[in-house]
Write a sequence for this structure.
């Protein structure tokens, strides 16, 4: 899947600067946007070291890193794309650890008349009417893959699949719900907490999909100072901050 124009411009800008000139660069899953912006700002305030953040689908970021994009740290929204980067020898295997976990939720626009539902007893097609369900692309984006698996486990995927609108990343799916273009969307709990325009209708059962895991690692071409940033992001204090953004804390690997 083609990366977004914004990601492409960010990579072009980074590539025009030598490693000696550029700040540390973090490639992170789109669902980590607010949390990583907050934490990297705190890191800069404490150390004076600037950090550039690039957010997109984990698949797009992983592919760019394997092609030589000058990232120092990679934060994925699932293990699959971290494994891909490791297999391509694009990240330092010994540095990989789980930063956090997340939950999958069904959301609707804040002004919607819909109230909380039981996903095991409610058919989403009945709630959709003639409209569509927003979700990240299940073929390329972790959030979409988790959503597809969960709907399959709930025996709803075959009915819902033709009614889906697939987005390039989970934040694009969230935006469709925020704008009222669709009545329902599947996003992470952290996305729902970050928005003032949606409300959660239900949390998907944790056993309906694989554990939503955020692995983080140094890239093979990381600058020397990147280890300090990685240590900061994986510290107990940073993990506690992640919990305030809707992420579940993970123990050190």
């Amino acid at each position: 899947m083609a990366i977004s124009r914004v990601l492409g411009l960010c990579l072009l800008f980074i590539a025009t600067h030598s490693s000696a000139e550029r700040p540390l660069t973090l490639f992170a899953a789109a669902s980590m946007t607010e949390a990583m912006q907050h934490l990297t700002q705190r890191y800069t305030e404490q150390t004076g070291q600037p950090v550039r953040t690039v957010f997109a689908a984990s698949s797009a970021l992983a592919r760019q890193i394997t092609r030589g994009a000058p990232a120092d740290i990679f934060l994925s929204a699932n293990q699959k794309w971290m494994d891909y980067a490791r297999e391509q020898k694009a990240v330092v295997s010994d540095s990989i650890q789980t930063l956090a976990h997340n939950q999958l939720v069904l959301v609707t626009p804040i002004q919607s008349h819909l109230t909380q539902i039981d996903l095991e007893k409610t058919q989403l097609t009945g709630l959709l009417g003639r409209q569509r369900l927003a979700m990240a692309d299940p073929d390329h984006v972790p959030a979409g893959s988790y959503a597809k698996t969960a709907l399959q486990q709930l025996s709803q995927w075959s009915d819902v699949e033709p009614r889906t609108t697939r987005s390039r990343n989970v934040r694009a799916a969230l935006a469709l719900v925020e704008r009222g273009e669709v009545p329902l969307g599947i996003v992470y709990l952290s996305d729902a907490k970050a928005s003032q325009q949606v409300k959660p209708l239900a949390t998907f059962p944790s056993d309906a999909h694989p554990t939503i895991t955020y692995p983080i690692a140094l890239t093979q071409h990381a600058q020397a100072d990147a280890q300090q940033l990685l240590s900061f992001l994986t510290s107990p204090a940073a993990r506690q901050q992640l919990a305030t953004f809707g992420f579940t804390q993970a123990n050190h690997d």
The longest strand covers residues 212-218. Confidence is low (pLDDT under 50) at residues 1-7, 9-20. The CA atoms of residues 96 and 194 lie 27 Å apart. DSSP finds eleven helices and eleven strands in the chain.
